[in-house]
């Protein structure tokens, strides 16, 4: 979240090659929301299952890349891997950003409820386009919170796939992330005071903050943070109906195993899978060192860990076979 500052038994060879990316749009407030559609062939007249991929916080695009230093297109890799297993997908640009820039005038003028409303719109478009009776919704990081919020009011979700999703309110997670880095010691008092204020619904004068954290609490995003801090993922998941996968990398330095456990405790029927050697951006890491972990974020040569795709595909195909 400081970045604002996710085994199929069928052999891939047994399935026809997926079609290339296609353009797809959903209605937005002032212009279209845009995404990329990857279709997979159905079987016996039944359409292939579909998954909507919701990116995480900040300027993260439909492929999972960010100008803040994340590269490698892990969501595109995930979509391609799922298609090879007979699962279609739509990955999206959030309202106000990238291909969806025309949907609203100000990308910062949003709430979690707005993003959840967009998810509902995308589900309707996907169902109409592909003929599926329901859509799997995958949320990565903060996208998992959006998925949980959307699921409170949507009945045509096949299930939720929560990948690297916090189990605590965002303010608590942000505190933990800041405290986890020893280099942040000089700025902690300023940053923690700002979080306290935003949690209480009060905006912060950045002139009173340490310069190193002023960007994290930019006035343009404070209304969004005040809104987002109100949501408790554990409370939301307890109210979700239908299958839920909680997928967490053990080498994630932004969201921890304790978050996955909180979600699991709130929804005991959920399936929880932890993956050794997988970090927050779903890439394999061989070291526990923070520097080596973060270095993979911007290295496009490091591909998504295959276990991520395998776990998600297994969940979807098992749920679809019911």
From TrEMBL:
Residues 74-267 form the Serine aminopeptidase S33 domain. Keywords: Hydrolase. SUPFAM superfamilies: alpha/beta-Hydrolases (SSF53474). GO terms for molecular function: carboxylic ester hydrolase activity. The lineage of its organism: unclassified sequences, metagenomes, ecological metagenomes. This is Hydrolase, alpha/beta fold family. The keyword Hydrolase applies. Transmembrane segments: none annotated.
